[in-house]
UniProtKB/TrEMBL annotation:
UniProt organism field: Gallibacter intestinalis
Keywords: Cell membrane, Membrane, Transmembrane, Transmembrane helix
Protein's name in the database: DMT family transporter
Coiled-coil region(s): none
Subcellular location: Cell membrane
Similarity comment: Belongs to the EamA transporter family.
Pfam families: EamA (PF00892)
Recorded topology in the membrane: Multi-pass membrane protein
UniProt keyword Transmembrane helix, yes or no: yes
Positions of the EamA domain: 8-150, 160-292
Segments crossing the lipid bilayer: 38-57, 78-100, 106-127, 134-151, 163-182, 194-215, 221-243, 250-271, 277-295
């Protein structure tokens, strides 16, 4: 029980880090372009994650937990292919999100991005994955919430920032499904490190084509870059991996979904963002949809209550 409580605390810390990262992204968007931001951010993430890989590798070697059933060559090939595939998906999602941060609030970005919780099972239908009927109800709630949050009264137009965050949620949906395919087949931390490297390289190429790298501007944004690169990407991801070894998966997803709530809280406290009653209602409806979508079915809930894994 103590171990589970510690895991839940780590997950809560991860949600706080990820939620507050929207503030850092918003600050960074005021100074440098999205591709420049992501080039440096994910390069820092790679550097910060290398010591974690070293520590985890030493621990596995000392415990003799290396899987001997998977040939080294095949394992390396899967790792590289998976890293490139997840990196391309993350590059797409991160670029859309960082671009959108210049045109929307941290609170809106947090709630709309978290829609991937509902979009993942819906898109999974095309991959022949089963979807629970309750997900359709959650999707309807999410659409209502999104309308109240992002669509101006009397119109059917969505702001540029909210539209690109919605595209970002779709891209994160693809990213999660790709990770779902590759993560059981390879080392999760190494996979993450490679995908961060791919995002940094792809962002660098895009930066050279569309933006101008100015060192002084990067230095002006160094705190948001360090926060998102080291804390949000490396520390947050590592805490999630460590915590989910002992935490209940349903509780884990519920705690991590608080990311959107913390984005709104920090947006109000630090950026002095405010929302109308209509927008707050939209956020509340979307949050309810996200929570319901992650609740287990009755059969699974009985198994969880009985501590049956």
């Amino acid at each position: 029980m103590r171990g589970q409580a510690r895991s839940n605390l780590l997950l809560l810390m991860t949600a706080i880090i990820w939620g507050s990262a929207f503030i850092a992204q918003s600050k960074g968007a005021d100074v440098i372009g999205p591709f420049t931001f992501n080039t440096v951010r994910y390069a820092l993430a790679v550097v910060a994650l290398l010591p974690v890989i070293y520590i985890f590798s030493r621990k596995r070697n000392s415990e003799n937990t290396v899987d001997q059933d998977i040939p080294r060559a095949n394992g390396t090939k899967t790792l590289i292919i998976g890293g490139i595939a997840t990196g391309i998906a993350l590059f797409t999602a991160s670029s859309l999100q960082q671009y959108a941060m210049a045109f929307t609030t941290a609170a809106k970005a947090g709630f709309i991005t978290t829609l991937y919780v509902i979009l993942v099972p819906i898109v999974g239908i095309f991959l022949k994955k089963k979807i629970r009927p309750i997900i359709w109800f959650c999707a309807l709630l999410a659409v209502i919430g999104l309308y109240l949050l992002s669509i101006k009264p009397g119109t059917f137009s969505i702001s540029r920032g909210d539209f690109f965050v919605l595209l970002c949620a779709l891209a994160f949906t693809g990213h999660i499904l790709i990770i779902d395919y590759f993560s059981p087949k390879t080392d999760g931390v190494k996979l993450s490190c490679i995908q961060f490297a791919v995002v940094s390289i792809a962002s660098f190429v895009a930066m050279m084509m569309t933006e101008t790298f100015v060192l002084s501007e990067v230095l002006d944004a160094i705190i948001p870059l360090l926060y998102t690169g080291v804390l949000s990407s490396s520390v947050g991801y590592t805490c999630q991996i460590i915590a989910q070894k002992k935490a209940d998966p349903v509780i884990s997803s519920l705690i991590l979904s608080l990311e959107s709530v913390f984005a709104a809280i920090f947006g109000a406290l630090i950026l002095h963002e405010s929302m109308s009653g209509r927008e707050i209602t939209g956020c509340a409806i979307m949050f309810v949809a996200i929570i319901i979508a992650q609740l287990p079915e009755k059969k699974n809930r009985r198994l969880t209550d009985g501590n049956i894994q």
